[in-house]
Amino acid sequence: ANYGPNPICKGCLSCSKDNGCIRCQHKLFFFLRREGMRQYGECLHSCPSGYYGLRTPDMNRCSRCRIENCDSCFSRDFCTKCKAGFYSHRGRCFRGCPAGFAALEELMECVEGCEVGQWSEWGTCSRNNKTCGFKWGLETRTRQIVKKPAKDTIPCPTIAESRRCKMAMRHCPGGKWRRPAKTKDKKKKKKNLMERAQKQHSIFLATDKTSQ
């Protein structure tokens, strides 16, 4: 029967004009649909999004998923598919994967990621494999990969990083401090200019004496 705006009582064992289906056939699920202030029963082959099928001796029912941001669930506390923009992880839904897990975008799931150990202490400040002879250098620290990711496509975090540091000794013991190449070039040019000036001055003096 069709009771005006109410759905057709398909699959019902008993149906009410005001409440729709009251009891369903054995294999179907009873779902209580709400529209504003009204609610009415339907008999469905599968439960809608946000619900799961709960089978009982009395009557099969559609029960609401109690997991936040879940689109479909296997049971009350285990989600099988999360809403758009959320990652599925151990029956729950997350905006971002927990620590130690990486996001698998194609499936929107969290899988075991690359696990790394603790950072080592910062190494010795050096430059060009020397610990002296310069004012500034670089120091490096590293960490080891403890567990490789489940898939090769999942990248590991950085396992080495460097930062600028000030040398403990700018001048090497027992060695002569050398000026940078740029300073050397300037000094050499200045010396050449002085030599040329002196040479021209000598020529001028010799010419002057000859003219006298």
UniProtKB/TrEMBL annotation:
Keywords: Developmental protein, Disulfide bond, Glycoprotein, Heparin-binding, Secreted, Sensory transduction, Signal, Wnt signaling pathway
Origin species: Cnemophilus loriae (Loria's bird-of-paradise)
Family: Belongs to the R-spondin family.
Ranges of biased composition (kind: Basic residues): 176-191
The protein's name: R-spondin-2
R-spondin Fu-CRD domain boundaries: 9-110
Matching PROSITE patterns: TSP1 (PS50092)
Localization: Secreted
GO CC terms: extracellular region
Protein encoded by which gene: Rspo2
